[in-house]
Amino acid sequence: MEILAFGVQSDEKPLIEKAFAGKHEVRCLDVFLNRDTAPIAAGYEVISTSVNADLGGKVLQTLAAGGTQMIAQRSTGFNNIDLDVAERLALRVSRVSWYSPYSVAEFAWALTMAVNRRVVRATIRTRDFDFRLDGLLGRDMHGRTAGIIGTGKIGEAFTRIAHGFGMNLLGWDVAENPACVELGMRYVDKEQLLAESDLISLHVPLLPATHHIIGKDALARMKHDAILINSSRGGLIDTEALVGELRAGRLLGVGLDVYEAEAGLFFLDKSLEGVDDDTLARLVTFPNVLVTSHQAYYTEDALGQIIAATVQNVDDYLAGRRSENVLVPAPPGP
Fold it and tell me: Which SUPFAM superfamilies match (predicted)?
């Protein structure tokens, strides 16, 4: 069988080809799946997609009409997939339910320290042989308070690093993580966490209940000199409200690896054509804001685990097996 993989990065292609070698042929495309590219999948029973694929109703209908029966998404998140439509069309949909939490947690801390210690600004200056320290003042994280919203595997890994810095730990989640409690975390309501934290890092999935969990009211509760980090999903933050706070001179710094309107932008080179997203254009002009292009997961370790799980998902589909990675069940047999 030949499998069609959409949205494959250059670093990712040899890993995917090696993982499928001896099992199936795989055709890797650097284009992302959307309404315009969906017809390419005609004739492919199994396709694989990236986190920025458009798997809305129209795209799913095109895929099903072209003979696709199984979609293996190479990510944990699946907010880009209309699961109800997929089920009506009898499409099998799987994801990667787990990969290295350290990749995302460590990158969230890289954003934290880069924002706090003005690393990007300092680097740009020194390239111009400007070695002044004006405007580069940071602060110790030791003794300050970290608020972790979402204390699953990634949130726990972030918490362990915060503990290593000697920070006070506040947590908010639907259920307490005993490992975080053992590290000294106090679980409090979200309002208290926002009000008392010097650093707030988001590690919850994007669901209807968490959409814009950091909105105008939440931002107003935060300390004026807090640091906000998001390496989870862009839709957790109301970006328009965030820009308003930044224009008012609030927040010490913001580190974003995700953006709520990143589809059609992230993972692509827009340097020659520009970007017509006024909110994003305004956001990146703030000297205390650092935006990266959804790369927190992008380590050899995590990518290897994601690809291995994707191969296993395809094997399970062909063998008629179910696993925790299946989001939409396979159609019933005759």
Answer: Formate/glycerate dehydrogenase catalytic domain-like, NAD(P)-binding Rossmann-fold domains
